[in-house]
Design a protein that fits this description.
- This protein has 187 residues and is an alpha+beta fold.
- It has one domain: 2-Layer Sandwich (Double Stranded RNA Binding Domain).
- It is flat and about 60 Å long.
- The chain starts with a helix and ends with a helix.
């Protein structure tokens, strides 16, 4: 029993040393976190149309810039949202029991000065919700369930976009940070 624990501990240590040796750096490590946070704060999020767009923009601002500090914008993030609702699980009276909300975001990250598109991706989130046992689509409980599902989908989408941008900017910032540091040293 003791021998198995020792082998388990050594194998975990071996994996950790392999990851450190190959240059692996966690996205949210204490050293890398400052530069990634700085890069995320340099993204200006354009206004997104409709109420759900406003909510997504606010979720993005909360997750990417929690302190809302002023930082000069280097990048512009443009997002177009499309939503669709699909009714599922019909009852005998032909009213739906469940619905499925699909939110698709068309994401474009541009450099502000050059206007160059650096990243063009599409992200899709699908959430489902129950309309209740005897709820009609226009009832308060059905409307509340749909609003809650929409809010849940937008929060997931905001976190997904943040991770997409952090991954992209962290790979992109390695070259930019070294250029910035060399520029600072010459000044």
């Amino acid at each position: 029993m003791l021998f198995r624990k020792a082998i388990c501990h050594f194998s975990v240590l071996g994996i950790v040393f392999l990851l450190v040796g190959c240059g692996f750096q966690p996205l949210y490590s204490p050293d890398g976190d400052r530069s990634i946070r700085k890069q995320l704060q340099s993204v200006r999020i354009d206004i997104i149309s409709d109420r759900s767009g406003q909510q997504l923009r606010n979720f993005l601002l909360d997750t990417m810039m929690p302190k809302r500090s002023k930082c000069s914008s280097v990048y512009r993030l443009k997002i177009n949202l499309t939503e669709s609702v699909r009714r599922l699980g019909f009852r005998r009276d032909n009213t739906p029991r469940h619905s499925e909300l699909t939110v698709i975001a068309d994401i474009r990250l541009e450099k502000i000065l050059e206007g160059e598109v650096l990243l063009h991706e599409e992200r899709k989130v699908v959430v489902s919700y129950s309309l209740g046992s005897k709820a009609e689509f226009g009832s308060f409980s059905a409307r509340t369930a749909q609003n809650d599902a929409q809010k849940r989908a937008l929060k997931i989408l905001a976190e997904d976009i943040k991770l997409l941008l952090a991954g992209f900017l962290s790979s992109d910032t390695i070259e930019e940070d070294s250029d910035i540091e060399s520029h600072e040293k010459t000044i």
